[in-house]
Amino acid sequence: MQQAEQQRNNRYHEALIDFLYQMADDELTIGHRGSEWLGVAPDLEEDIAFSSISQDEVGHATFYFELLSELGEGDPDQLAFARTANQRKNARLLERPNHDWAYTIARGYFYDVFDHLRLQELLQSNYIPLQKGVQKILREERYHLLHMETWFERLAKAQGEAKERLEKAITAIWTDLPDLFSLGQSGEILREEGIFPISESTLYDKWAQQVKALFDHSGLTWPAKQNETLENGRLGVHSSDLQDLLNVMTEVYRSDLTATW
Amino acid sequence: MERQIQNQHYEVYEVFVQRDALSHHVHVGSVVAPSAELALQVARENFLRREKAVNIWVVKQENVHATSYEDQDFFANQVLSKSYREVSGYAENARKWKAFKQVAITVDDLVNDIKEH
């Protein structure tokens, strides 16, 4: 009896930790990519706005890393900077380089719609520390989503070069989409345990419904659904882009592992 | 060339921030943005990263109508003495009123007063 309960607790604990890594790594990775626009965004105001948004994303990652730390995973800074590429569980889409502004906006919009849905579902989570933090995070994410959506629609309706670049970006992003909706090895358990109450396919359907509405509204063609691939970032399988990102992101951290920053 | 492209898509918006429900909107600066919607969003990120506020206005700069710096007569309201419009113009009142109240009333004054009515 006691052993069965212990096993159940372990199951809950492991799934929760796996899921928190997915969220933390998603936010840190997109936040870092966003920060690369500092100084080179299309205009000065957007430069500051985009950096501010990216800083918020890193702040959300910090929150998730702190939850992991409370669950016995170790120092949040180490979790953020010392883990190798194959220990990371972010979706592969988020590790890709920024390419151009159209790619950045399209990826940002697709991710923010997804993240917003994920956060809304987490309002029902039975893991209260996460559920409470998400209430606060949602208040910021609404504006991130609004910002990406405004830009996305603007580029789509602009015609000419803006639309061409956006369509090219959408094609490139589409092949990287599948693992964004993957919950890795713990999807079923997350739902059964009440940590995250929605299935991967329902999450995708909700996402597609919302994004397709803007495609229709902006005169964009909805691409065919991408088949799932074996390359799943949620399982630690990443492209070399993540290693490139880590080399830059952890450069200062690695220069002196004992320093207190 | 690049500047020209910018001008086609961007406009200057003046930004006004209201710090709390009882305050006026106060001008804090301007942003360049391609639409009013984006102007509101970048104004939020540019001016309110740390400060609290309850509301933002953005107004296209071209919709702001202003007086001229050259026509200084427009502001020439100090050519003649306007002390009667200022608090300082009435600084003597308290002293004068006090002096008036302090004039002693004599019996003759009372008699005259009764006679007059």
TrEMBL record, chain A:
It comes from Sulfoacidibacillus thermotolerans (Acidibacillus sulfuroxidans). SUPFAM superfamilies: Ferritin-like. Gene3D superfamilies: 1.20.1260.10. InterPro entries: Aromatic_CoA_ox/epox (IPR052703), Ferritin-like (IPR012347), Ferritin-like_SF (IPR009078), PaaA_PaaC (IPR007814), PaaC (IPR011882). This is Phenylacetate-CoA oxygenase subunit PaaI. The lineage of its organism: Bacteria, Bacillati, Bacillota, Bacilli, Bacillales. One of its GO terms (cellular component) is cytosol. It holds the Pfam family PaaA_PaaC. GO terms for biological process: phenylacetate catabolic process. Transmembrane segments: none annotated.
Automatic annotation (TrEMBL), chain B:
This is Phenylacetic acid degradation protein. It comes from Sulfoacidibacillus thermotolerans (Acidibacillus sulfuroxidans).
